[in-house]
Amino acid sequence: MTDLPDVSLEPIVYLNGEVVPLSEARVPVLDRGFIFGDGIYEVAPLYARASGRLAFRFEHHLARLARSLEKIGIVNPLDNAGWRALIERVTEANEAEAGLAADQDAIAYIQITRGVAKRAHAFPAGIQPTVFVMVTPLTLPGAAQRAAGVRCVSAEDRRWLHCDIKSVSLLGNVLMAQYAAENDALETIQFRDGVLTEGSSSNVWVVKNGVLAAPPRSHKILEGIRYGLIEELAAQCGIRFEVREIAEAEVRAADEILISSATKEVLPVTQLDGKPVGDGKPVGDGKPGAVFAALYAAYQRAKAEQA
Ligand code: PDD
């Protein structure tokens, strides 16, 4: 007998009213998510705490889910209480049957597609959306990765111009993630017409002379739930914060570059395209900087403090 979770156990998922093992969840091939990428998704951390599992800033995730649905004309199948109850139900099923330990952080993945219909591009009438929820263990970046920072590469942002929608049509992001993987990097930082947009699956921040800057909320980036959070944390820490267009040259000359996402929290980028970040600063060394350290600590406090 051992207390270790049985990793051979399958995750338990929710699909269209049923809670089943992952391998039993089936979607018809004419699902418009499969045929057209016609759907949206959410990814939200469920942190393990002694006082119980915390769906971190979940109301923000649900608000973004509602916005994404509205932007593509799908009626939200549940209200916020319904979503919370569903995530709890799937989490409990994974704790009971899939070896998800109560002290293991988890990630909730929600996907909604327009549903199943004969293949024709325009919205079909009278179909039910496909609703899928999966809760799986989350391994956050460790102390060593935070101490060393991560490598990124950069590329021109060639995605469509509805990046504000958290769409499952992720081919542009997938190609950028693959480019990073092929270059031994964690993320690709993208520029559109010489201006910073975001990472392949993260928001990007730059620091110069102690001032933190982020690209404006627009159709060119996905507004991460950590975007608003880091804005709040910067204010708490007394870090000056600017929202403005950031030229590629500024990114390359930044003292610090940070990336943020549900699965990465906030991470320091210490190498961009093979060059150490912060090379130009007085103590320029390609090491994580003070703004990262302050924001990471504030992020952990926010987790501890959310009721
Ligand atoms: N992606 N921008 C893009 C393109 C992203 O895919 C993500 C997150 C973010 C950061 O958003 P948030 O702070 O809400 O995680 C920004 C998730 C993690 C994913 O696709 O798995």
Provide a descriptive summary of the structure in words.
The chain is α+β, with helices and mostly antiparallel strands and 307 residues long. It is built from eight helices and 15 strands. The structure holds N-(5'-phosphopyridoxyl)-D-alanine. N-(5'-phosphopyridoxyl)-D-alanine binds at residues 43, 173, 198, 201-203, 222, 224-226, 260-263.
Which secondary structure elements does this structure contain, and how are they paired or packed?
Elements: E1 12-15, E2 18-21, H1 32-36, E3 39-47, E4 54-55, H2 58-71, H3 80-97, E5 106-113, E6 130-137, H4 143-148, E7 150-156, H5 171-182, E8 187-192, E9 195-199, E10 203-208, E11 211-214, H6 225-237, E12 241-243, H7 248-252, E13 256-261, E14 265-272, E15 275-276, H8 290-305
Helix pairs in contact: 6-8
Bound molecules: N-(5'-phosphopyridoxyl)-D-alanine.
Residues 43, 173, 198, 201-203, 222, 224-226, 260-263 line the site of N-(5'-phosphopyridoxyl)-D-alanine.
